[in-house]
# Entry
Amino acid sequence: MIGSLRGRITSKAPPQLTLEVGGVGYELEVPMSTLFLLPPVGQETRLLTHLVVREDAHVLYGFATEEERRLFRNLLRVSGIGPKIALALLSGISVEGFARCVQNQDAAALTRVPGIGRKTAERLLIEMRDRIGAGGVPVESAARASAATPEGEAFDALVALGYRPAEATRLLKTAGTGTHSTEELIRRALQGAARE
# Structure
């Protein structure tokens, strides 16, 4: 998977841009929030990426911040939400604004984003509720506050294995943090999940 690209912007045609990296031009789709932060055509930049593989195409999405990419990936896990709707959400509302909408269960604010109807907004609020923590901080961000710690690395591993962020946090609490290594925390969390 392509995690990030650093190169020269050769064209911008919202929501698309082309980034030339080592003589290869990568076409990326980016949210407007990222597009506004980019330097002009001809300048160099770095973007975090997410590759979506479909039957008829491979589409690369670019993001200025890890928070945007993380929200995009979380949105893709919601039933009925594809990359185009996720990109529209990121273009129409900030990561912090989205977190506030989820915390306040504000479907009306989400329906102001083009392409988001009432039913989709309600589904987003329900399915994203356990992924947004206190203070509007995504649960993943709170648990990953220090990803270099064994707890943060174990959390990342559990989420990569398919556990929901809230469930991964709960499993790690029952595993007993402290002086355990990352591997030991993962082993204890998985053993606890198997006993349930």
